[in-house]
């Protein structure tokens, strides 16, 4: 009925994108950015004919592996809306991927001037990690958290770096703080369960994995680990029930199949 309505075109782009119709999504987002000939309907959402459409367009190009066009869109987003942090984040991610460290450093300087220090330090740490300077990355993140202990983005970057590149147990206090700030994130609870399991605190691990599957039941590895923790606690029947529930949700999962079949044999 309203073929040139920006909001309808924007929503159409979202639907095409959701179903993997990338070319149709691109067309819809591009049309959404063109001013309609008749202003018969005014959207209540600011940016759908500008930076929000470009943001989504950049993500579509990334999924297609068209990195240059994605970068062009992120640059347009940051030029059009300089205080839109998600745009800088998207551009920074692509510069990191392409190892354009000089351009990234220039961007980080801009971010500091725009009072986006948390994003700046996160990108700087990720660049140092990519350059195998993990100690430097850790120092940058921890220094920022001394001043801003509840910066969620920096807490996430710190926990991930410590979990992946150092002793996972070192990430525990940052994950605990994130769990409080995020109000029950299943992936954070899972990682805390993994740390408890590595410490051989299997009761705590089982409790945390149980909380994690309640928060996000569609996580196959958590069902595997919940059963393993219960088994280590000597609660074999509960372990098997956990694996069976996981297998019900993921009927083709090889580890869950093997664990359930082994429980029948033994």
Description:
The protein has 266 residues and is an all-alpha fold. Among the domains are: 1-36 and 43-75, Serine Threonine Protein Phosphatase 5, Tetratricopeptide repeat, CATH 1.25.40; 155-266, Tetratricopeptide repeat domain (Serine Threonine Protein Phosphatase 5, Tetratricopeptide repeat, Alpha Horseshoe), CATH 1.25.40.10. It has helices spanning 6-18, 22-32, 51-63, 67-80, 85-97, 101-113, 117-130, 134-147, 152-165, 172-182, 186-198, 202-215, 220-232, 236-249, 254-265. The termini are far apart. The mean pLDDT is 93.
Give the helices and strands, then pairings:
Elements: H1 6-18, H2 22-32, H3 51-63, H4 67-80, H5 85-97, H6 101-113, H7 117-130, H8 134-147, H9 152-165, H10 172-182, H11 186-198, H12 202-215, H13 220-232, H14 236-249, H15 254-265
Helix pairs in contact: 1-2, 2-3, 3-4, 4-5, 5-6, 5-7, 6-7, 7-8, 7-9, 8-9, 9-10, 10-11, 11-12, 12-13, 13-14, 14-15
Give a short synopsis of this structure.
With 266 residues, this protein is mostly helical.
Distance between the termini: 65 Å
Q: DSSP strand (E) fraction? A: under 5%
Task: Summarize the biggest pleated sheet.
Answer: none
The coarse silhouette is globular
User: What percent of the residues sit in helical stretches (DSSP H or I)?
Assistant: over 70%
* CATH class descriptor name of the domain at 155-266: Mainly Alpha
Assembly type of the chains comes to single chain
List keywords for this structure.
Serine Threonine Protein Phosphatase 5, Tetratricopeptide repeat, mainly alpha, 15 helices, globular
């Amino acid at each position: 009925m309203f073929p040139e309505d920006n909001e309808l075109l924007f929503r159409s782009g979202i639907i095409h994108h959701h179903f993997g119709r990338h070319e149709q999504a691109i067309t819809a987002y591009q049309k959404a950015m063109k001013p309609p000939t008749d202003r018969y309907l005014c959207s209540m959402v600011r940016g759908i004919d500008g930076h929000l459409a470009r943001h989504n367009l950049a993500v579509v190009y990334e999924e297609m592996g068209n990195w240059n066009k994605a970068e062009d869109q992120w640059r347009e987003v940051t030029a059009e809306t300089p205080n839109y942090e998600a745009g800088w984040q998207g551009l920074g991610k692509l510069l990191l991927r392409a190892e354009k460290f000089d351009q990234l450093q220039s961007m980080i300087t801009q971010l500091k001037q725009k009072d986006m220090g948390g994003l700046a330090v996160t990108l700087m740490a990720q660049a140092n990690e990519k350059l195998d300077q993990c100690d430097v990355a850790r120092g940058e993140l921890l220094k920022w958290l001394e001043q801003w202990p509840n910066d969620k983005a920096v807490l996430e970057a710190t926990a991930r770096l410590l979990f992946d590149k150092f002793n996972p147990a070192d990430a525990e206090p940052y994950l605990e703080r994130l769990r409080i700030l995020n109000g029950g994130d299943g992936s954070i609870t899972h990682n805390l369960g993994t740390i408890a399991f590595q410490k051989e605190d299997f009761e705590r691990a089982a409790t945390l994995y149980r909380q994690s599957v309640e928060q996000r039941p569609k996580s196959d590895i958590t069902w595997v680990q919940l059963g393993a923790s219960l088994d280590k606690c000597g609660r074999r029947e509960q372990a098997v029930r956990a694996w069976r529930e996981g297998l019900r949700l993921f009927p083709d999962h090889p580890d869950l199949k093997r664990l359930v079949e082994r429980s029948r044999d033994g």
